[in-house]
Structure formats: structure tokens, C-alpha cells
Design a protein that fits this description.
The complex is a heterodimer. Chain A contains five helices and four strands. By secondary structure, chain A is of the alpha+beta class. A six-stranded antiparallel beta sheet of chain B has the order 1-2-30-29-28-27. In chain B, strands 4-3-5-6-7 form a five-stranded mixed beta sheet, covered by helices on one side. In chain B, β17 and β18 (285-286) form a beta hairpin. Classes of the chains: A alpha+beta, B mainly beta.
């Protein structure tokens, strides 16, 4: 009984204390809420602006996509590097696809264990050198390849020698060396899958690659 | 005991003998390499392996794995003891009169005992039936998952006791599997079981994997950054680091025998040349300065010299130089295409690839000799690698127009084919002898 009285008293005191605190909390909350409203408004405005920007972006993207589709370009391409106009990039893309363009041929073929660029292959290299000279912001990769016969690692070195040969020829024609990355895939990326000379001839090659444009 | 064909038969399908064991042992399931022996030594050691007591309660039957290992080496032939009234598992249970009457010379018996703590005690003895005496015998206490590994260990002990050279049944191999455009670097037991991939590239090639001398790491070349870069990959935790990513190509890693350095091929200064670098990527040193291609370094077992491929003389040939670089001595003189030299573990000879008419085959040559012996006759054989006991050479070949692995003994007499059920297998490397696994 005595215990219960004490407990009731304690509860009453506690309630009073809480009530007291509630008031303080409320007033604190009121000031906080006020600040929140300004913040909310700012956020709302910001969200609205972002939404408009997104919609704008989305419209631009759709337009760009439609324009590309109209050009029958199925691939979504990287943006042109700084300094290169979108018009020029589009032009390069269509040149790479156009069989009558001097840039259409981008593969140099070799005899077995050979890495010299001869005859018709010279004309291919020269055409690309001319284009690169006129378009100093375009960078390329030259990928050297081999047929499957012989050592994996010796073929890798041979593919590198082929790619380096094309790079050297381009630099002699005035293209800056830093614009050309020469890499070798050795015998790992064949185009001809057969085990005959016809396939092997397809695989002894250097490919000039315009990353982002083809 | 399944009825075993005579190992002298030129074509013995090992998989057929233990299909259950090979297939069921692969829950994590890369496709198994299956092994076919296509030749024999001509003077095989007779061996009789009786079923071990209680082994049938476990997925891997110890006696099957042991016998399959021994026959796969090409150095043994099974001597079937026929039906016995009671299969002995301890020496005192052997009826010597009966056993000798069946023509048994070397007899393997054993048992698998389950202990109260759930572990297994595997005991085996190799007995000389003529002398009615034990040649060797051991007891191992293992968990059930280690039964197959212990069976390989037992085969190693028997092999060494009867041939005098270490067995390699407990070693591992690695190789690259190409399926479509996907490349996977896989590690498997030397019998092709327990294959697991440690790296998979959806499109970009992986080449030239090679084991660190302690078997804990692999160095390899991966093209995942659109160019050849050398990585060192730790097998224990799967972590890896770039060892060499210099301008141009980074390739052909080769460990020094102490595991401290690697020789490799770089094009950072122009043509493909040899360099050495610390296993931690520090301390790059140039080893060769030629105008041609220098590549495919192989460090000698004593650490003093390096064999490599160079076309400085107009065609690719094998050369030797000091491990610190300097002048090189031409080693091969036959033909116009000799590449991919690998030292035998005793350092007395090397194997390599030689163009042989229109074919590319594995050849072997003694150090100090100028003539080579051709060991294989495939259309395009490549990437030879010695077993750590020097007995066999594993290499990449083709069968039915698919890349497969094959092995040939150093004397050319024993030939094996290993194939995977899917994809093309290439670029094998045989791991080192493991201490105690």
C-alpha cells in the first residue's frame, strides 16, 4: 500500500516533468519547423530546376538519338574529343563505313613471318596519315595480329612488330607518335577461323582502329 | 575390382575405368579433363592394387585413384590377382602362396578406418610378393574431403619406391580454356580433377600462365586492359597485382628459381626485349639489347642462366645468356624456327618447339649438344612444360580441330591426350612438387 503511494507519486512527478519538457520541446520544434519550411522551399525549387534540366536533357538525348537513327548509325558513340566538332565526328563515322572513302580500308596484310608494309598497303597507310594530319585531335590504335602457327609469345612479339611498323610509317608521314597506340593481340584474335592459308592470310594483319568512331 | 585392360594396349581410356570417381569428384564443376594413354614405356612395372577395406563407403575409392594414377604414368601395368576368397588389408592376412600363384609381384593393400572424431585413417602397404616383405607403408589421418588427395600421395610413394624418381600425382596444372570469345584461366589436379577457374575474361585473351616455384602464385598475361599486362595472382586468397604495365606490350613472365624475380618481355624501349623485375614489381633491369625480337625467357634451375627466343640472326632460334644479361650463345641450329625453350628440372636439357616441315612439334635437346630429338608429330604443338620430376612434357596440341592438352615422356615413348568436354584448351603450365599438402 505504502509502496503504491510512492509509485503513484513518482509517476505524477514524472508526468509533470514530462509535460514541462514537452512544452520546451514543442517550442524548440516550432523554430526548427520554421527553418525547415524555408529549406523545403529551397529544395522544392531546386528539384523543379533539376527536373526541367533532366527533361531538357532527355529531349536533347531523344533528338540526338533520332538524328543518329536517321543517319542509320546503330551504335551509340562516344562524344567527340574536345576540339573536334560533332559534324566532323559524324563525317569520320560515315567515312569509315563508306566503301568509296579512302579511310574505308583499315587493314594491312602480311606474308608469313613478315612485317614490311608493301605495295597497296602503303596507299592505305598514306590515306590515314593524310586524314590524321588534317584532323590533329583524332587518336588511333594500331592492332597487330598473327596466324596461329608457332609460339604464342613469339607471335605476340611479331604482332607488336607489325603494329609498330605501321605506327612508324604514320609518324614518318607526319603523324605525332603520341596519337598512335600500337598494340599486339598475337594469335589470339583471328578473323579467319579455318586452318588453311586463306584463313591464315586474314589473320596476319594490322588493323587501324578509330576508337569511338566505328 | 573392375576388369582392367592391359596397360600395354596402345589405347587405354582411363576415364572409362573410373568414370564415377572423376565425374563425381567435380561438384564445383568445370568440365573434367579426361586422359587417354596412347603409348606405353614398353617395359612397364607390374602392379596389383587390391580394394582397400571400407573404401566403398566413400565417394573416392582410394584403390581406384591409386591404380589410375600409376597406369596413367605409362610406367606400370596392372597384374590382376583375380578373385580372392578374402581380400587382405594387413600383411598377415595375405595368402602368399595364392598371391604368387596369380603372378603378383608388387602388391598394394590398405584400409580406410573411420575414427570416433569422424576423421579417417588411411593405411596402405606396398608389399614385395617374392620376398614376402613390405617395401613401404604409411598411415594418414584425414577428413573425408581429403581422400582423393591422400590417394594421390599414396600413388606418389609407390611410384617413387618402384621407379626411384618422385611421383607427380599430387601436383597441379594450370591452363587456359577458350569457349567462344571467353577466356578462362583454370587450375586443376594433375589428373584433371578439381578444375576451377581463377580468372575469366568475357572477351580478352589470357596467355602464358606460369607457377611461382613454391606453387602459391601464378604470373600470367591478361589483355583485359586492351593490351598485354603481366599480373601476379595469389591462389590462396585470389588477390592479384599488376606486375608490369609499361608502355607497349608486357608479356612472357618467367620466375627465377628462388621466386624473388621474374624475367619478362617488354616493348617500352622499342622492340620486344628481355628485362627482369622483382616479384613485388620493383627493380626493373634490362637484360638484352638487340635489334630483333627477344622473348620467352626461361630461368635455369640453378638460377645462373636464361634460355630465350631471339630472331637476331634472321629466324627465331634459342639462345642462352647469363641471368644478369650480357652476351648470348646460340643453342639451336636445326631448321629455321625454334621457340619456347623450357629447362628440364635437372638443368641438363631443354624442350622447345621446332618447325618440322609444315608442322610445329615438341623437341628436346641436351645442353652442350647441337642436335635435337623430335618428340611429337601434331600439326601445331605449342607451350611445352616439364613435369616437376622431368619425366613428362605437357604441351598444347589439337585433336578433331580443337585445342587439347597432350603429354609425352622425355624419351618420346609414352603419349597421353587430355581433353576438356567444352572449349579449346591451351597454354598449359605444370606446377611444382608440393611439400606436404
Amino acid at each position: 500500500m505504502y509502496k503504491n503511494v510512492i509509485a503513484a507519486l513518482a509517476l505524477a512527478l514524472l508526468a509533470a516533468a514530462c509535460a514541462n519538457q514537452d512544452v520546451k520541446e514543442q517550442s524548440k520544434a516550432a523554430t526548427v519547423e520554421k527553418r525547415d519550411l524555408t529549406e523545403e522551399q529551397r529544395k522544392r525549387d531546386e528539384a523543379a530546376r533539376a527536373q526541367i534540366a533532366r527533361e531538357q536533357e532527355e529531349r536533347d538525348r531523344r533528338l540526338e538519338e533520332e538524328r543518329r537513327k536517321a543517319e542509320e548509325d546503330v551504335k551509340i558513340q562516344a562524344l567527340p574529343p574536345t576540339g573536334m566538332t560533332e559534324g566532323l565526328a559524324t563525317d569520320l563515322r560515315s567515312q569509315l563505313r563508306d566503301p568509296s572513302s579512302p579511310l574505308y580500308k583499315r587493314t594491312i596484310f602480311y606474308g608469313f613471318d613478315q612485317y614490311e608494309i608493301d605495295g597497296d598497303n602503303r596507299a592505305i597507310v598514306e590515306a590515314h596519315a593524310r586524314f590524321l594530319e588534317q584532323n590533329p585531335d583524332v587518336k588511333i590504335r594500331v592492332e597487330g595480329n598473327c596466324d596461329e602457327r608457332g609460339s604464342t609469345e613469339y607471335n605476340l612479339a611479331l604482332g607488336q612488330r607489325r603494329a609498330d611498323g605501321v605506327k612508324r610509317a604514320l609518324t614518318l608521314l607526319g603523324v605525332g607518335a603520341s596519337r598512335i597506340e600500337a598494340v599486339s593481340y598475337g594469335e589470339e584474335k583471328p578473323k579467319g577461323m579455318g586452318q588453311d592459308e586463306e584463313s591464315y592470310a586474314l589473320n596476319r594483319r594490322s588493323d587501324i582502329v578509330y576508337p569511338g568512331y566505328e | 575390382m573392375p576388369e582392367m585392360p592391359n596397360a600395354c594396349a596402345r589405347r587405354t581410356w582411363i576415364k572409362g575405368l573410373t568414370a564415377g570417381a572423376l565425374v563425381s569428384a567435380l561438384p564445383a564443376a568445370r568440365a573434367a579433363l579426361t586422359i587417354e594413354i596412347v603409348g606405353g614405356s614398353g617395359r612397364e612395372i607390374p602392379i596389383t592394387v587390391l580394394p582397400f577395406g571400407n573404401e566403398e563407403r566413400h565417394r573416392d575409392r582410394v584403390s581406384d585413384v591409386v591404380l589410375t594414377d600409376l597406369l596413367r604414368s605409362g610406367l606400370f601395368k596392372e597384374q590382376n590377382a583375380g578373385a580372392l576368397p578374402k581380400i587382405p588389408t594387413e600383411p598377415e592376412e595375405v595368402n602368399w602362396v595364392t598371391v604368387r600363384g596369380r603372378g603378383v609381384d608388387n602388391l598394394v593393400i590398405g584400409n580406410v578406418v573411420e575414427r570416433s572424431d569422424g576423421r579417417l585413417q588411411v593405411r596402405f602397404r606396398l608389399l614385395d610378393a617374392a620376398k614376402q616383405a613390405q617395401r613401404s607403408g604409411y598411415s594418414y589421418t584425414v577428413s573425408a574431403s581429403q581422400l582423393r588427395a591422400i590417394a594421390h600421395k599414396i600413388a606418389d610413394v609407390i611410384y617413387e619406391d618402384l621407379t626411384g624418381e618422385p611421383g607427380v600425382f599430387s601436383t597441379r596444372i594450370c591452363y587456359v580454356v577458350k569457349v567462344g570469345e571467353r577466356f578462362e584461366l583454370q587450375v586443376a589436379d594433375s589428373d584433371g580433377a578439381n578444375a576451377n577457374f581463377i580468372l575469366a575474361n568475357p572477351r580478352e585473351p589470357i596467355i602464358s600462365p606460369t607457377w611461382s616455384p613454391d606453387g602459391s602464385r601464378l604470373a600470367y598475361v591478361s589483355f583485359e586492359r586492351k593490351k598485354p599486362v603481366v599480373y601476379v595472382h595469389s591462389l590462396a586468397d585470389g588477390s592479384r597485382q599488376v606486375l608490369a604495365n609499361f608502355d607497349g606490350a608486357n608479356s612472357a613472365p618467367a620466375w627465377s628459381p628462388d621466386g624473388q624475380r621474374l624475367a619478362l618481355t617488354l616493348t617500352r624501349d622499342g622492340p620486344s626485349q628481355l628485362y627482369s623485375i622483382g616479384a613485388n614489381g620493383a627493380g626493373l633491369t634490362r637484360l638484352t639489347s638487340s635489334s630483333g625480337i627477344d622473348t620467352e625467357a626461361a630461368w635455369s634451375p640453378d638460377g645462373r642462366s636464361i634460355l630465350f627466343t631471339s630472331d637476331r640472326g634472321g629466324s627465331p632460334q634459342i639462345y642462352r645468356m647469363a641471368a644478369t644479361g650480357g652476351p648470348a650463345e646460340r643453342m639451336t641450329f636445326e631448321g629455321t624456327y625454334n621457340t619456347t625453350a623450357r629447362w628440364s628440372p635437372d638443368g641438363r636439357s631443354f624442350c622447345f618447339i621446332q618447325r618440322n616441315g609444315g608442322r610445329y612439334n615438341v623437341a628436346i635437346q641436351e645442353i652442350g649438344s647441337r642436335s635435337a630429338q623430335l618428340l611429337t608429330d601434331g600439326r601445331i604443338d605449342s607451350s611445352p612444360t616439364f613435369s616437376p620430376n622431368g619425366r613428362m612434357i605437357l604441351y598444347a596440341s589439337e585433336f578433331n580441330r580443337r585445342g587439347i592438352l597432350a603429354a609425352v615422356s622425355r624419351d618420346g615413348r609414352i603419349k597421353q591426350r587430355l581433353s576438356e568436354s567444352t572449349g579449346s584448351v591451351r597454354e598449359p603450365a605444370w606446377g611444382p612438387l608440393t611439400k606436404s599438402r
